[in-house]
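Final paragraph of the annual report: two paired records, presented back to back.
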Amino acid sequence: MTDTAKLTALIAPEVEALGYAVVRVAMFGGTSDPTLQVMAERADTRQLGIDDCEKISRRLSDLLDEADPIEHEYRLEVSSPGIDRPLTRPQDYDDWKGHVARVRLLEPRDGRKQFEGRLGGVDDGNVLLTDVSKLGAVTLPLAAIDHAKLLLTDDLIAATAPLSTDGADRIQMEG
């Protein structure tokens, strides 16, 4: 099994040196199609374009070839976290405060493992969710969260509109 914490410790400084922030490092696909996924974003805009992905991919390919931290063959995937991004760092819960998220716990709490509500931020190691169906507001320990992600809403779409749409209507053909 691949140690993603060690991979993150190896990868993050390289990504940050390029001016990006690592959102998540994960291995997917098991033994049939292993993929090392690196989600990143521009530290200044929280967005990531294809050119950014290419730049990070080149840097990480060289690093990973040299360090060889994964014992088997795998595919490297560098991507943006997307609009319905995972919430992986404590700061994400503050940065996306006011938006709707789905949070799944490692173990059930009050008979539930999954909660949907509006993010109220993080305080003292706990995430506040408001407008949770039948519960109102709940406080969930960060350490108890298995995974969390933003849910697609009109407010989220408006908040994550691209900084520039230049070229979005063109298809570039390379020959």
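The closing record of the year follows.
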Amino acid sequence: MVRKYTKEDLPQMIKIWNEVVGEGNAFPQEEELDMKSGAEFFASQSYTGVAVESESVVGVYILHPNNVGRCGHICNASYAVLKHARGRRIGEQLVIDCMKQAKKLGFQILQFNAVVKSNTMARRVYERLGFKQIGTISNGFRMKDGHYEDICPYFREL
């Protein structure tokens, strides 16, 4: 089940977010969240959703504008799934809910700016859900070990 997050979810959400940040192969962030910065970060989004299984948060997503003004109808999102819960289509559930919430908020396009080319699981989900790859940005993402990988921006009309 995917639903809007509550304050009670924050410890699990922060753990999941920090797990992905620490892996250093998907999110551009390098600094981990603590309870204060995590509460502020998740509250500042247009929408934050969580995937819950057996009363435990196993995934989280954030949704926010990708730009302002004349491009304000385009949104952006990030998804994180607990490492031991991956491979069970939780990420796909998060993306589907995100698209519904984005549409409710008046967004018309969902765009991902920096999908790491080697993140094949995420790319398969996006393509299965109708996202189109815009192109490739060579060496657009610095991996945790310092080498650079290509990024593949994606978009989908809502």
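The two ends are 21 Å apart (CA to CA). This concludes the annual technical report; the extension proposal builds directly on these records.
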